[in-house]
Each structure stands twice: as C-alpha cells, then as structure tokens.
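Deliverable D5.2: sample structural annotation.
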Amino acid sequence: MRVLAVFLFGVLIFILTCTKNVQDLVLYRQVYFQWNDHPDFSKFFDFTGYPFHSSLYVLQKIGHGIFFFIFSFLLNKTTKKVYKVLFMAIVYALVTEIAQVFFMRTGCLLDVLYDSIGICFYCITITAFGESSSRYRLM
C-alpha cells in the first residue's frame, strides 16, 4: 500500500509537471499533454529572467518544495532510509524537470533546486526530530 501511495503521488507530480497548462488543470481539471520532438534545452541552465519578485512565482516555487516534502515523506514510509529518500527524490525531481522539455514546458535546473529544498528539509527534519533516532538514520 505504501509503494502504491508513492507511485500515485509520483504520477500526480508528473501530471502537474508535464501537462501543457497547469492553470487549466487546476481550474477546469483538464489534463493535456503535447509532445515535443525537438526539445530546446538551452533554457534548462538559464537562471535569468525569472520573476523572483512576483508573489505568484514565489508561491509556485513554495509549492515545488511542499510537493517534494510530501513525496519524501511517502518515500521514507517505504524505504526507511533517509539517504535513499534523498537520492530517489532528487533524481525524480531532475527527471520531471527534464521531462517538461519534452512536453512543451520549460524545464529548469533552478526548479530542481526548489524541489531539493523540500526534500532536504524533510530529510533534516526526520533525522533531527524523527519518531526514533535509530529508525531514521542518515545512513
């Protein structure tokens, strides 16, 4: 059951990541994927031109962290090893950002950083304040 929860939440993240218009998904529950045969990876490493001052942008990036915090929680319930959670969640964050480029979205390494903040926050929290320190070891 725990593996199913991780899988389903991973699918939810993928849908939110790769649907063409997140606003249509949220407001109208419309999922639409559009495949891009010739993705442009030039923006993947571009860290300029982002509206860091926009409250909507900040809220959206906080959502990145929250979703990957929850994903890390679910992974931890399955693996019980924080280092596995850290590795698997960061790899999935990277995979979803790369996948965006193939679905007419703009994937960005900066978003992997926002996802990783949620992942690391979970791992630090569970290591420091876990139910049992022997149960949630870093290694």
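Annotation notes: The two ends are 25 Å apart (CA to CA). The chain has five helices and no strands.
The annotation will be released with the project's public dataset once the embargo ends.
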